[in-house]
């Protein structure tokens, strides 16, 4: 099988970073552009399914008839998009911040699952756990779409209650009201909350987040009975909320990334490879998309050495090369150092493990790289 080709993030034309801005424009809010050509409406629900990739969905279409029927139905408009790209890296932190701010990673600065903060003396921030004392608003200062809309629309987030004050929420999706769910398995409560929020005010925007598909995929892999069962549950929940929503509400279902299963024999431990670990001062990112910093060696030489070892298994780029290639969109000068000196994105079904992140050893499903299964997510628009 030939190595996978990279999927370029479609910033400004068909990326997750274009979704909420297009929704706002479709609601008639000034200052936004409807680049996705969404239907005009006063009420929108954006339903984010963490880990729902386009390729994962259509491969298991029988287990998600409501979602798959919309994904695979003949388009009434030949130009109607059914997919978006994730940003680079294709990971929750970056994707949700792109969604929330309607900007590429190079603008908002949440450039990966875990990345160095220059102002923190080289410490690595993991935004999912927010392990550093830095303020989320300092780390990510770009106003969110929800903030920009909260004085003009009834804006609501429906998600787990414990996420209300999390660092990632405050960085990526702050703004509007937050309706916290105490039990994420209670789909009836989620449906009720979404419908009530959609009915608030003359115009409304609801962002609903569901993470269970991603959790199962990481634990068991996506080609498993457990994953298909969770996909069926997700499909049923979306069908029920669409049926319960008022007729004037546009429901949009999307994902933040797809997923690839990584066999045990395709895992390379960085510390066991002298030509990889030599001269590396910091390994961050995640197994499918590593970010490397070297305070002692030139990045070009580090990249060349990693490329020689990994060959066609990976795309290896220096920071400057990745920026020039459009991986992060335009990058603000003050944010460049957050991106690794060298970036390593896996092309096949392999992964780069490290002893500094042993908790990653138990994952089966992974993501982060630029392959089509990881980068392509559905854009399912259920019109009134």
From TrEMBL:
<feature type="region of interest" description="Disordered">
    <location>
        <begin position="74"/>
        <end position="93"/>
    </location>
</feature>
<dbReference type="InterPro" id="IPR002591">
    <property type="entry name" value="Phosphodiest/P_Trfase"/>
</dbReference>
<feature type="compositionally biased region" description="Low complexity">
    <location>
        <begin position="83"/>
        <end position="93"/>
    </location>
</feature>
<dbReference type="InterPro" id="IPR017850">
    <property type="entry name" value="Alkaline_phosphatase_core_sf"/>
</dbReference>
<protein>
    <submittedName>
        <fullName>Alkaline phosphatase family protein</fullName>
    </submittedName>
</protein>
<dbReference type="Pfam" id="PF01663">
    <property type="entry name" value="Phosphodiest"/>
</dbReference>
